[in-house]
Amino acid sequence: MGKFVIEGGKSLKGEVQVGGAKNSVLKLMAASLLAETPSVIRNVPKIRDVFIMKEVLEHLGAFVDFQDHELFIKPSINNFETPYELVSLMRASIIVLGPLVGRFGKARVARPGGCNIGRRKINLHLKGLSQLGVEIRLDRGYIEATAKKIKGGRVFLEFPSVGATENLIMAAVLAKGETVVIDNAAREPEIVDLCNFLQSMGADIEGVGESILVIRGVDCLSGVEYSAIPDRIEAGTFLLAGAITGGEVYVSNANPGHLELFLMKLEEAGLEIEKKEKGILVRSKGYTNSIDVATFPYPGFPTDLQPQIVALLSLAEGISVVTENIFENRFLYVDELNRLGANIEVKSNRAIINGVKELYGAPTMAPDLRGGAALILASLAARGSSEVLNVTHIDRGYESIEEKLRRLGAQIERVEFKEEEAWANETTT
Ligand code: UD1
Questions:
Q1: 103-114: per-residue pLDDT in tens?
Q2: Residues tagged active-site
Q3: Structural domain boundaries in the chain
Q4: C-beta of 167 in contact with ligand 1 (< 6 A)
Q5: Please, what is the Cα angle at 69 between 2 and 81, to 5 degrees?
Q6: What are the φ/ψ torsions at residue 284 (nearest 5 degrees)?
Q7: From CA 313, how far away is CA 297, in angstroms rounded?
Q8: Percent with pLDDT over 70 in the chain
Q9: Of 32, 75, 289, 369, which one is least surrounded by beta carbons within 10 A?
Q10: CATH second-level architecture of 2-19+230-428?
Q11: Cβ(134) to ligand 1 under 6 A?
Q12: For the segment 70-94, what is each residue's pLDDT rounded down to a tens digit?
């Protein structure tokens, strides 16, 4: 158990490097199960979700070695079940369904429940797989998927779900001699990364980065060495750390092409942005304009940066409206921000943000990963001392966030404590 103790009001300056994309690496790890030989994945962040996915793969029989941001995965699979103990720790574990059924014709994966940000249904994954000839049975909390052969055909996704697109791609790549078309596919950079990884393994995928993917099944795939793309959400979070503290931060190893709309919005909010080939600089002009933002599937504004931009806009001049279109419950952190002095009202899927002149330090509780990041940002800008509890949520997606922020001049410490103390904290904050 742990918390961050933050002394706010310091302007952040300097350079920070982002790691590999969490949402890409988790899928590359699952995809490595499709190959007959081992793979090496580079630029892997040391975050909780990667360690959980490592356990998932090991449970399936794979040998996984993780050292120095590099994963070695030998896909020696001898078990086809992913238990609830692992899926309940990380719902993205559902992503092994596609590769298992695609390569071995069978999988039994615990059905993930919702999480703090929404119901997180998986109906599109299951419907799409059934359309490819996979027989799906729901058995006491488990999804049992079996297929003698993956059938070719066209799957039209009712919504461009990231996870459903990825599960379908991975189920289809080994459908020997069959062609699978995924229409209205998600186009996130992490999906492009997955397709590039699979192509380097020998997969035949046309339309990468577009909303119609044509996958021609091949006989087998071989392991490869591959480096994951940079984490655009981590990059966006650090840019906002520079912005909200009135500072100047250069985020290196970031791809500005993955953050087009986000960077446009920062400019609209009055920040100076310089896009470099391998990095992004943000410079504050000492004020923030109010702006409106609406989250949408890529290339729209990323829902995973919604809480963090709300933190910035809580200090803008005027009223901003932020609309969340992807998840039904992604404003849990707002009450915590209001405890720091923000003035935000949530109406249905909109946050109406009345900018305030300053925030003040207070103890807060991270309700989820990105909501937790937003609380760190607000605490960095707040006058006085703040605490952000429940840092395990934040550790799921950010490697050593406090060390990286400290290098930019932030005053932030991690304090570990025992569970009983956490309980005492929880009941008093
Ligand atoms: C992934 C990302 C997450 C990001 C999200 C949207 C990972 C590990 N996580 O999550 O960080 O916020 O994309 O960019 O990559 N839906 C259905 N039925 C389905 C599938 C999804 O109704 O079968 C709904 C979900 O409940 C949600 C919306 O579609 O409201 C988006 O979900 P999806 O795009 O699938 O996100 P994930 O893959 O879960």
A1: 999 999 999 866
A2: 115
A3: 2-19+230-428, 22-217
A4: no
A5: 80
A6: -85, 145
A7: 21
A8: 97
A9: 289
A10: Alpha-beta prism (3.65)
A11: no
A12: 999 999 999 999 999 999 999 999 9
